[in-house]
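Technical annex, item 7. During the second reporting period the consortium partners agreed on a shared format for inverse folding records so that results from different sites could be compared directly. Each record opens with the tokenized structure and is followed by the designed sequence. A conforming record, contributed by the partner at site C, is shown below for reference.
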């Protein structure tokens, strides 16, 4: 794709300038989903595709996935490195090395403080986007030296934090507190959302659920159809009592998890239900009742399964039309 889409539409922001991309649309770094085909399709269309590091079993596998992505696009793309406190953490130093040795210059971090990783990435010219769920964490991330912040509202899939602040408030609050570019995340899936985020002061948007329901996402068609058929009411918040809230699809498993914890249960009581292997079976086999799986409130606005590149172009054109219409209503008044 040329710098300008065929109809001349372009949305330039601090984020597009920072990352060398055409459109301020970032693909969410989703576990089991952020593979070469999807990331390359988003990047080739002018957005920023994201390869998910820990989806790959080893750092060597990640290096191969980065190579596969580069074979499909010569446009910028990034790698998500989620930092989780676990008893046996992944070899993060080896994943970091695989990223920089592969020539990737954009990394999205999430899950915990990026501080242990920033010196290494800065020393190799890698720009770090850190995903936060609160303004206070975003301010700390900026102080540590990240290049941009992705601020994740309560509407998001996965972990929204414990403050329950939706994007309509969280995004402008973050914009007011930060000097680095801000990416709005959580609840975005179309051009209206992109236009709204830009109006709130954000420099772009991060979309997970929308790209989960794209042609290139390595997810069973039954899962994608379930997203199209679902409404904004069809998610559950689990782990509230454990202060580790997660938004997942509403199904028999998530209903059971909520009921057990509400009745005084502890994590060991639900651990077999929420095992990651069960969620992976959902994506691979298409049985949407096989386990818990992440999806955001924006599924209520997802109407189709479409190629990721087409989605990027559609979203940008819609945003441009919305912004043009709104500004035109007040022109000369």
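Designed sequence (site C submission):
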């Amino acid at each position: 794709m040329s710098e300008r889409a065929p109809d001349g539409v372009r949305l330039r922001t601090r984020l597009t300038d920072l990352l060398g991309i055409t459109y301020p649309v970032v693909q969410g770094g989703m576990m089991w989903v952020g593979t070469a085909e999807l990331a390359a399709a988003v990047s080739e269309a002018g957005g920023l595709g994201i390869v998910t590091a820990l989806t790959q079993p080893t750092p060597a596998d990640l290096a191969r996935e980065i190579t596969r992505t580069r074979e499909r696009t010569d446009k910028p793309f990034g790698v998500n490195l989620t930092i989780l406190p676990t008893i046996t953490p992944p070899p993060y130093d080896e994943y970091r090395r695989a990223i920089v040795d592969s020539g990737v210059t954009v990394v999205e971090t999430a899950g915990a403080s990026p501080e242990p990783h920033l010196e290494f990435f800065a020393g190799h010219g890698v720009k770090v986007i850190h995903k936060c769920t609160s303004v206070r964490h975003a301010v700390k991330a900026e102080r540590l030296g990240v290049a941009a912040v992705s601020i994740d509202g309560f509407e998001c899939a996965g972990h929204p934090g414990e403050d329950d602040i939706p994007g309509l408030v969280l995004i402008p609050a973050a914009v007011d507190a930060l000097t680095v570019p801000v990416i709005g995340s959580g609840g975005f899936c179309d051009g209206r959302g992109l236009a709204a985020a830009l109006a709130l002061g954000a420099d772009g948007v991060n979309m997970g659920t929308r790209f989960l329901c794209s042609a290139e996402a390595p997810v069973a068609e039954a899962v994608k159809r379930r997203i199209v058929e679902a409404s904004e009411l069809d998610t559950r918040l689990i782990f509230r009592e454990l202060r580790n809230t997660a938004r997942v699809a509403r199904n028999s498993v998530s209903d059971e998890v909520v009921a057990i914890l509400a009745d005084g249960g502890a994590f060991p009581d639900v651990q077999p239900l929420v095992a990651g292997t069960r969620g992976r079976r959902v994506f691979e086999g298409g049985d949407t009742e096989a386990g818990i799986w992440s999806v955001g409130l924006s599924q209520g606005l997802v109407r189709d399964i479409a190629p990721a590149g087409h989605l990027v172009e559609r979203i940008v054109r819609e945003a441009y039309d919305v912004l043009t219409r709104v500004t035109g209503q007040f022109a000369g008044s």
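The radius of gyration is 19 Å. Strands lie at 25-27, 49-52, 77-82, 106-110, 127-132, 148-152, 182-185, 204-207, 235-238, 246-249. All partners now use this format for quarterly exchanges.
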